[in-house]
Amino acid sequence: LLLSVRRFFFATAEGAAPASGSASSPSTGIWLIHFGLLLGLLALGFTAAFQQLEYHWNWAAPWRYRTLFWQGWLTTVALALASLVSSTLIGVAAALASRSRFLPARALARLYVELIRGTPLLVQILILFYVIAPAFQVENRYVVGVLTLSAFAGAYITEIIRGGSMAVKAGERV
Description:
Helix content: over 70%
Oligomer: single chain
């Protein structure tokens, strides 16, 4: 099994394998069969190893807290969606500012992107939660979390949008 996989990879490196895109070639079919067998043996080995464990899960303890887990998951999804929407808006606005002809807007957008991308997320969370939020009397930790994640992701989205807009040729722009 391993020799045939090795032979397939060396043949591919030398150019002896059939062209990519021909999924019906015999060597590809044999490779898929061997790969499936290898995965099956790996799964069988893991199953046998886990059967030897003496530990039995006690699901009664987490089952009592299932409503808290469900509420936590829903809160996480809601915060992630709010952060996604606001970071996209921040990213589009900053990308437009970075492409504008107005020099202060361009400089502020560049400063924002470089400052956020050059600082670790944990540092940003700590600064926003313990320094900036109390200065503006923001006591809701969810709002601070969404704003922090939005600012962080917005800087990366800014660069994605800016790079995409710069990749469009001048004659193709609307």
